[in-house]
């Protein structure tokens, strides 16, 4: 009898605990997170986004003259695409910066399945899908030997995130591409409102794109040095870690990407599934695919002189067309174009490309000063 009473008391206590947590959905976020803490953001009963906590800290933004020189060397392979080194100037000189507040970041880029959930639930139409819309995609007629006159990337009106023209069947676990800066911000806004509606949004935080400083800090995985990649300076230690230009046949062909390819197969000539390389493909913070895969947009506007510690926005009076920043390189890139410091300016907030994606950040609000 005594044991039965104790069992009933224990059951009652557990039910009370569950009810409290149900009435206080933010309880799961109440404890002070530490580096490596993870959370699942539920989109429905079967689909979620994994977040990793990244504490505040210092890091190195930019690159050294030696690293820039290596990027355009024969081994780095970036000389053709970067105009003999001009693009590397966008990285700026190596300098110390600090991310003052901790934040949560998606372990992977947003996937096709996660973006579909957003589009289906809201009826959202991306910039590429709107009347007159278009997106930049791979030209399957291109070939390095027999069809050099063909342009490698073409602007296509009938393609979008639903079919990015990769030449392979689209998979739910591929990173979503062919979405614009506007589309990415709309996804983050939806995620914020969805969390608010069920009471799971931590107080004072929103879902948004990471700032450029947050992304650059997160990419290095806790390193405070200036290593070219998150694992170090040795390109050959990248085997089994990332998806860039390697010894993989393009879909339906018997040739590989031209230029400074890696001397091994990474399994995918085009885009690979997120977190495909598992623990080996995750950096010191536990983030997957921070180099290669797809370019990732950040919140800041592009300053060709280099990234900033604080969020950088172009004034609407001085530049009518806003140019977002993308980081990290993509599946076609040579090693020199997939380093931690690599950054590019995107044409506009409506531009999209089959090499560009994004990951979400949960942090303090960082709003644009100019209407976009």
Query: How far is the first residue's CA from the last residue's CA?
Result: 70 Å
CATH class category name: Alpha Beta
Beta fraction of the residues? 15-25%
Q: What's the CATH superfamily, by name?
A: paralog of FGE (formylglycine-generating enzyme)
Using the 3D structure, state the CATH architecture.
Alpha-Beta Complex
Could you estimate the helical fraction of the residues in percent? Answer: 10-25%
Question: From the alpha-carbon coordinates, what is the Rg to the nearest angstrom?
Answer: 22 Å
Number of helices: 5
Strand order of the largest sheet: 1-2-5-13-8
**Shape assignment:** globular
Low-confidence stretches: 1-5, 8-25
CATH fold-level assignment: paralog of FGE (formylglycine-generating enzyme)
Describe, in plain words, how this protein is organized in 3D.
18% of the residues lie in helices and 15% in strands. It has 372 residues and is of the alpha+beta class. The protein has a single domain, classed as paralog of FGE (formylglycine-generating enzyme) (Alpha-Beta Complex). The strands form 4 sheets. The protein has a 5-stranded antiparallel β-sheet. Strand 1 (38-42) and strand 2 (48-54) form a beta hairpin. It is globular, with a radius of gyration of 22 Å. The N and C termini lie far apart (70 Å). Mean pLDDT is 88; it is low at 1-5 and 8-25.
């Amino acid at each position: 009898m005594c044991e039965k009473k104790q069992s009933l008391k224990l059951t009652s206590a557990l039910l009370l605990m569950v009810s409290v947590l149900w009435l206080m959905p933010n309880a799961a976020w109440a404890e002070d997170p530490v580096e490596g803490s993870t959370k699942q953001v539920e989109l429905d009963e079967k689909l979620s986004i994994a977040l990793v906590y990244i504490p505040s800290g210092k890091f190195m933004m930019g690159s050294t003259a030696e690293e820039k020189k290596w990027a355009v060397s024969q081994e780095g392979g970036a000389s053709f695409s970067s105009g003999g080194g001009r693009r590397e100037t966008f990285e700026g000189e190596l300098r110390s910066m600090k991310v003052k507040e901790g934040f949560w970041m998606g372990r992977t880029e947003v996937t096709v399945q996660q973006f579909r959930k957003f589009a289906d639930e809201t009826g959202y139409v991306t910039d590429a899908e709107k009347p007159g819309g278009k997106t930049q995609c791979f030209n399957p007629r291109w070939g390095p030997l027999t069809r050099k006159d063909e342009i490698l990337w073409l602007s296509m009106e009938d393609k979008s995130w639903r079919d990015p023209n990769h030449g392979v069947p689209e998979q739910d676990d591929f990173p979503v591409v062919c979405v614009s800066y506007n589309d990415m911000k709309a996804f983050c806004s939806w995620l914020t409102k969805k969390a608010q509606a069920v009471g799971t949004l931590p107080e004072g935080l929103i879902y948004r794109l990471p700032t450029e400083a947050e992304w650059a800090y997160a990419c290095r995985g806790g390193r405070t040095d200036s290593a070219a990649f998150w694992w170090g300076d040795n390109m050959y230690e990248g085997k089994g870690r990332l998806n860039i230009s390697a010894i993989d046949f393009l879909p339906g062909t018997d040739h590989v990407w031209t230029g400074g390819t890696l001397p091994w197969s990474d399994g995918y000539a085009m885009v690979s599934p997120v977190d495909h390389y598992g623990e080996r493909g995750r950096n010191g913070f536990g983030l997957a695919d921070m180099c290669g895969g797809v370019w990732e947009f950040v919140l800041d506007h592009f300053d060709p002189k280099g990234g900033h510690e604080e969020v950088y926005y172009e004034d609407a009076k001085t530049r009518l067309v806003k140019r977002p920043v993308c980081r990290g390189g993509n599946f076609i890139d040579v090693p020199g174009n997939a380093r931690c410091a690599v950054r590019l300016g995107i044409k506009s907030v409506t531009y999209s490309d089959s090499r560009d994606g994004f990951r979400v950040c949960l942090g303090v609000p960082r709003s644009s000063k100019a209407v976009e």
